[in-house]
UniProtKB/TrEMBL annotation:
Species name: Edaphobacter paludis
UniProt family annotation: Belongs to the AhpD family.
Keywords, ordered alphabetically: Antioxidant, Disulfide bond, Oxidoreductase, Peroxidase, Redox-active center
GO BP: any one term: cell redox homeostasis
Domain Carboxymuconolactone decarboxylase-like: 97-169
Enzyme Commission code(s) on record: 1.11.1.28
Listed name of the protein: Alkyl hydroperoxide reductase AhpD
Length: 181
């Protein structure tokens, strides 16, 4: 099933998501195509909806270069790890953990071969989906230092919020007792 079909088949209660997808993804003017589709990819991956991720990646392959798609996947992977580690740091009251080295490899943060702003944007998006305030704060700061505006950042987060909600709806519909196989 194509991504457009998946979106069009969302239930009536998710009409706002369809409308937001149309305006924020299909008619987007705030993000470059690479920023937009990398954002859609990382948000779908972070949502953990297999159905959505499959269709998003298939669509993204028609827009993103193989290098950009690989970088988006790498951003989702590395932030999936980092968000757990650093979120633990802000959830625990034991300050000793913040003094301990992470000893986690993060080479992809410097070796991704795409625009640094785009990669940082995708790291921020995953961190927002995963609710890691340390990572959100860190990547938002780096983005602004690299010249990204609050409007650009906000545009990516709006897209991520819609993609995440679509994944939630798709998975909840599959889990519904009235869902058909």
């Amino acid at each position: 099933m194509a991504l457009e079909d998946l979106i069009s088949e969302l239930p009536a209660y998710a009409k706002d998501l369809k409308l937001n997808y149309s305006s924020l993804v299909k008619q987007n003017t705030e993000l470059t195509p690479q920023q937009l589709w990398g954002t859609v990819v990382v948000a779908a991956i972070a949502t953990r909806s297999a159905e959505l991720t499959t269709e998003v990646i298939a669509e993204a392959e028609t827009v993103l270069s193989p290098t950009a798609l690989e970088a988006a996947k790498a951003a989702a992977a590395i932030m999936g790890m980092n968000n757990i580690y650093y979120r633990f740091h802000h959830l625990t009251k034991n300050e000793k953990y913040a003094t301990l080295p992470s000893r986690l490899r993060m080479n992809v943060l410097r070796g991704h071969s795409i625009e640094p702003v785009d990669f940082e944007l995708w790291c921020l998006v995953v961190s927002a989906v995963n609710a890691c305030d340390k990572c959100v704060d860190s990547h938002e700061k780096v983005l602004r230092e690299k010249g990204a505006t609050e409007e650009l950042i906000n545009a990516a987060i709006r897209v991520a919020s819609v993609i995440h909600a679509i994944g939630v709806v798709l998975d909840s519909e599959k889990a519904s007792p009235t869902a058909t196989a």
